[in-house]
Amino acid sequence: MGADELAFWLRTRTVGGTTIIELHGELDMLAHHELGPRIHALVCRADTDVILDLRAVTFLDAGGIRLLLAVREHVTHRGGVLRLIRGTPRISHILRIVRLDDTFTVLDTLPRALAEGAATDEGRRASM
């Protein structure tokens, strides 16, 4: 990884009324400062449901935890529903250690209807 490359990134898509935000890489203080405003903007214009997909997160520290809590606060403030897709065992363990595993609604995978909708949307974009 070069000096100018960030160790994290995100990808978003909307399926029906749900915004899915896939987080990738290291969620630390830098990620909190860089991704926080972008996620806040997405959540503010999103419909009520937001899913944070943690499956591609490789590292989580206090800054990353702050990011997750900030997203929860933004979504809740708007009257929305936030769900997390469980990350690796290491990430799940960290959430358990800091006693946040019960604070979030945690899913094992993307709900089927959303996964099928995302595949349909991607197929439509690819055929354009």
TrEMBL record:
Query: Which residue positions does the secretion signal occupy?
Result: none
* InterPro entries to which the protein is assigned, alphabetical: Anti-sigma_ant (IPR003658), STAS_dom (IPR002645), STAS_dom_sf (IPR036513)
Family indicated by similarity: Belongs to the anti-sigma-factor antagonist family.
The STAS domain sits at 8-117
Looking at the record's lineage, which domain of life comes first? Bacteria
Which CDD domains does UniProt cross-reference here? STAS_anti-anti-sigma_factors (cd07043)
Return the protein name. Answer: Anti-sigma factor antagonist
